[in-house]
């Protein structure tokens, strides 16, 4: 696995400079106070003031910092040092007190102590992980009894498409092996001058939910959304403000959310 994770770390390090200047991340307006979180997760989690949040795979921390601006005590985790360097810089510029921890999410028990009211992760997370049993065990470990796990992420169905070709190309279920791809550009700019190798894994919805249920978490809410709040796959159309779809003629799931509770 080491080779896969090292390759992906280099991939994410390479993306940071492009992402920080992108329209999608809109850093200037974020710094002036714009809340970058989407209605999906804002409504899903509700009031976070005074709560402790562990944000897994936080990239350069924009969403972590937004939860902190809403009054939460936030710890963000990512394995990309360049992402975290920018996250820490933004935290300082904004005078916030988010803690950022560099770690592979699957090895977090070796790098962090404590338990949290909420474990949160969103948009582009589980596909980078080979083993969701280990992921679920990390989530359960860091949740306080009575705590909430919340994920809003791209639906495994939308990951089945080769977007530029408009064809079904990838598995729904995990085959046990990663896909290896060499891609140009990134989701904020498909023509960005970067080229990189990446490894990713497919996981169906049952593969996401089952390990969490096996840890003893109970399901509070499961939702599917026929749009993405991000214009992040090639050739999407904005059907309503902030709602992007892959093919307006087909109602297909783009995003799902899951809210689970660790029993007392
Ligand atoms: C698409 S971003 C997360 C999305 C986040 N909502 C955002 O856009 O700001 C994916 C993040 O996962 C991180 N990542 C990928 N694999 C990881 C792993 N095994 N452990 C920790 N972080 C990982 C990457 O470094 C990257 O920052």
Description:
- By secondary structure, this protein is α/β, with parallel strands linked by helices.
- It has one domain (2-262): Vaccinia Virus protein VP39 (Rossmann fold, 3-Layer(aba) Sandwich).
- The chain contains 7 helices and 13 strands.
- The strands form 4 sheets. A 7-stranded mixed sheet has the order 3-2-1-4-5-13-10, sandwiched between helices. Strands 6-7 form a two-stranded antiparallel sheet. Strands 8-9 form a two-stranded antiparallel sheet.
- Strand 1 (52-56), helix 4 (62-69) and strand 2 (73-78) form a beta-alpha-beta unit.
- Helix 1 (2-20) packs parallel to helix 5 and helix 6 packs across helix 7.
- It is globular.
- The two termini are 35 Å apart.
- Residues 5, 8, 12, 57, 59, 62-63, 78-80, 83, 104-106, 122-125, 128-129 line the site of S-adenosylmethionine.
Number of domains: 1
Strand order of the largest sheet: 3-2-1-4-5-13-10
* Terminal Cα span: 35 Å
The string of secondary-structure elements, in order, is: HHHEHEHEEHEEEEEHEEEE
**Which superfamily, in CATH terms, is the homologous superfamily?**
Vaccinia Virus protein VP39
Report strand %.
Answer: 25-35%
The chain-level mean pLDDT equals 96
Architecture per CATH nomenclature, i.e. the level-2 architecture: 3-Layer(aba) Sandwich
Please name the CATH topology.
Rossmann fold
Count of helical regions: 7
* Portion of residues within helices: 25-40%
Bound molecules: S-adenosylmethionine
Main structural class: alpha/beta
Instruction: Note the overall shape.
Output: globular
The total of beta strands comes to 13
- What is the CA-based Rg, rounded? 17 Å
Largest sheet: 7 strands, mixed
Poorly predicted runs are none
CATH structural class: Alpha Beta
């Amino acid at each position: 696995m080491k080779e896969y994770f090292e390759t992906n770390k280099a991939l994410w390090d390479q993306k940071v400079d492009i992402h920080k200047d992108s329209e999608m991340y809109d850093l200037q307006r974020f710094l002036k106070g714009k809340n970058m979180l989407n209605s999906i997760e804002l409504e899903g989690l509700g009031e976070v003031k005074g709560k402790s949040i562990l944000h897994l795979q936080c990239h350069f921390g924009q969403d972590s910092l937004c939860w902190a601006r809403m009054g939460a005590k936030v710890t963000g985790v990512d394995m990309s040092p360049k992402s975290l360097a920018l996250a820490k810089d933004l935290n300082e510029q904004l005078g916030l007190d988010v803690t950022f921890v560099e770690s592979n999410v699957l090895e977090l028990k070796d790098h962090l102590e404590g338990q949290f009211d909420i474990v949160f992760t969103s948009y582009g997370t589980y596909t980078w992980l080979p083993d969701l049993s280990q992921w679920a065990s990390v989530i359960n470990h860091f949740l306080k009894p009575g705590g909430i796990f919340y994920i809003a992420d791209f639906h495994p169905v939308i990951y089945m498409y080769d977007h530029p070709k408009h064809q079904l190309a990838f598995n729904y279920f995990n085959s046990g092996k990663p896909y290896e791809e060499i891609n140009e550009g990134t989701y904020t700019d498909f023509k960005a001058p970067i080229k990189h190798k990446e490894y990713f894994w497919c996981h169906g919805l049952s593969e996401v939910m089952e390990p969490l249920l096996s840890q003893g978490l109970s399901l509070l809410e499961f939702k599917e959304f026929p749009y993405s709040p991000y214009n992040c796959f090639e050739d999407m159309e904005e059907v309503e403000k902030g709602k992007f779809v892959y093919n307006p003629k087909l109602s297909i799931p783009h995003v799902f959310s899951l809210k689970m509770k660790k029993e007392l």
